[in-house]
Design goal:
The chain has 509 residues and is of the alpha+beta class. 34% of the residues lie in helices and 24% in strands. The protein contains 16 helices and 20 strands. 44% of the residues are buried.
């Protein structure tokens, strides 16, 4: 395969920006075609690159296998005229592809497989996948060659940065995601500004802070605004899964004591230190917010997308499952969010979406909230925390639900109704870990699932979909989405799945 220009090394920034803008109208054309008919010809090029801070990527064990989380996007192949080109750092095990394709509703697996092109870099280094692709002109050419009609194709990525923009230009297809020039609105500081514009409640605080000195001053000023405040949260602008959050406990009102308190930051990650944290803060910037005290708290989120036509479209709501030393690390989610506040956060997130759409944002987005109350008889108050302008930890579980059931979200209730007319619920995580799981190969997991009846059943519209299967043997790591017809059924099936995994790997114990 001989590569053809343009080449990444020869593309000037001016040429790149001009070409990127010229591709944007084509995304609208593709979107209009897809909305007009379910069987429109189209090609989705999926590059599930976690284009994040290098240090964050290095900390994420088995990061290359996180690229498998978006295999639920093979739902596109339900359309018999659709093609998918899926690129990864390392090859996806054939049995994992077979596992997904045989669960696809409404089309033979062989027909879907013929319209799927899998490509990879054969590069397991902990770097963004997009960066690896750009280093390989022949791979870029192979992706181009796999697209039957570039006028009806688009690029889907995990998050949009300038290197994803460059890849879209090299492929000659529009980016179905955020213009990197608008990425500020997905930072912690940008989120706060959007919340104010959307008239959505948010914690008292300060944004666009640059360094430790700014943080100290913000903590002093926050104490003046909130006399008696006990704690505050410091957040890095571009942190991931809550790992950039740190809690400060107020000792007294003096600035000297504030400085001493900062030395004792309660960090979200055990291995982090205050000095290292503030070195990252100086690089990224961030915010300081009040820590909202309440006897009962939960962290729901609402997911939407803004379309190329400026529409704001609801996707889902979740209650997030959090953990870590300070209880701020994202571990998983349950769908849908509690009925007590589900439609409240939906409406707030919709208002946020209209502000984003007005700024030209075309992206999936999620808004994380804090819901809190002081006693079971009190009503829930809600405060918005941050906007994520990318695919989310809650994206692939919802794609799994759609992939398996073929249903739709009822926007009036926030429930998902399957093709069989059932209201569906699920619980999902990327964080199942055990040294014992390393004894399993992908083939072994499929045997375990089959022998114990954990497979998703189209008859009952319930079951388990596993992901991160490729990370099992090396890292003892696995993800799953458990789908059932009530929250109680979900919890029972989730517990059963974990019990079976433990039982099947307890050799000699």
């Amino acid at each position: 395969m001989i590569p053809k220009p343009p080449f990444a090394s020869e593309l000037t920034l001016e040429q790149e920006l001009h070409a990127f803008e010229s591709l944007k109208p084509r995304l609208t054309e593709v979107w209009n075609a897809l909305m007009a008919t379910e069987d429109a010809h189209c090609t989705s090029v999926v590059v599930p690159s976690l284009t994040l801070d290098q240090e964050e990527l290095t900390k994420l064990k088995g990061v290359a296998f996180y690229e498998e989380r978006l295999l639920s996007l093979l739902i596109r192949l339900r359309n018999p005229r659709a093609h998918v080109v899926y690129v990864t750092s390392q090859p996806v095990h054939p049995i994992i592809l077979e596992y997904y394709l045989h669960l696809l509703v409404g089309v033979p697996a062989s027909h879907a497989r013929a319209r799927l092109t899998m490509l990879c870099c054969y590069d397991a280094s902990p770097r963004p996948l997009t960066e690896k692709i750009l280093e390989r002109p022949r791979l870029v050419e192979r992706i181009r060659a796999a697209i039957p009609d570039s006028s009806r194709a688009y690029l889907t990525v995990f998050n949009s940065t300038p290197i994803e923009r460059k890849l879209a230009v090299l492929l000659g297809i529009p980016l179905n995601g955020l213009d990197p020039e608008l990425s500020y609105y997905g930072t912690k500081s940008g989120s706060r500004r959007v919340f104010r514009e959307a008239n959505v409640p948010l914690p008292e605080g300060f944004e666009d802070l640059r360094d430790e000195h700014d943080v100290e001053q913000a903590l002093v000023d926050l104490q003046k605004k909130r006399p008696g405040i006990r704690r505050a949260v410091v957040k890095l602008n571009e942190s991931f899964s809550g790992e950039g959050n740190a809690i400060v406990t107020y000792p007294t009102t003096s600035k000297t004591d504030i400085r001493q308190a900062l030395a004792g930051l309660e960090l979200a990650v055990d291995t982090e230190t205050p000095d290292h944290y503030f070195a990252k803060f100086k690089r990224m910037g961030g915010v300081v917010e009040e820590f909202i005290e309440a006897s009962e708290k939960t962290s729901p989120s609402a997911q939407f997308r803004t379309s190329p036509r400026g529409e704001v479209l609801a996707t889902s709501t979740h209650d997030q499952i959090l953990g870590g030393p300070s209880g701020q690390i994202y571990l998983g989610c349950s769908f849908p969010a509690r009925e007590d506040y589900r439609m409240v956060i939906t409406e707030m997130a919709r208002r946020v979406g209209h502000v984003l759409a007005g700024k030209g944002v075309v992206s999936r987005y999620g808004v994380d909230f804090l819901a809190f109350r002081n006693g079971p008889e009190q009503r829930w108050d809600v405060s918005a925390l941050e906007i994520n302008l990318r695919l989310l930890g809650t994206t692939h579980p919802f794609l799994a639900l759609s992939f398996l059931t073929g249903g739709d979200l009822d926007e009036h209730s926030g429930n998902f109704i399957s093709l069989g007319g059932r209201t569906k619920y699920y619980k999902a995580t990327d964080n199942l870990r055990s040294e014992r799981y390393r004894t399993l190969l992908p083939e072994d997991l499929i045997d375990v699932v089959t022998d114990n009846g954990l497979h998703y059943s189209h008859r009952t519209e319930s079951g388990v979909l596993f992901h991160l299967i490729g990370a099992l043997s090396e890292f003892g790591k696995l993800g799953l989405t458990v789908i059932a017809n009530s929250p109680a059924e979900v919890d029972e099936l989730y517990a059963r799945a974990l019990h079976i995994l433990d039982a099947e790997t307890s050799y000699g114990q």
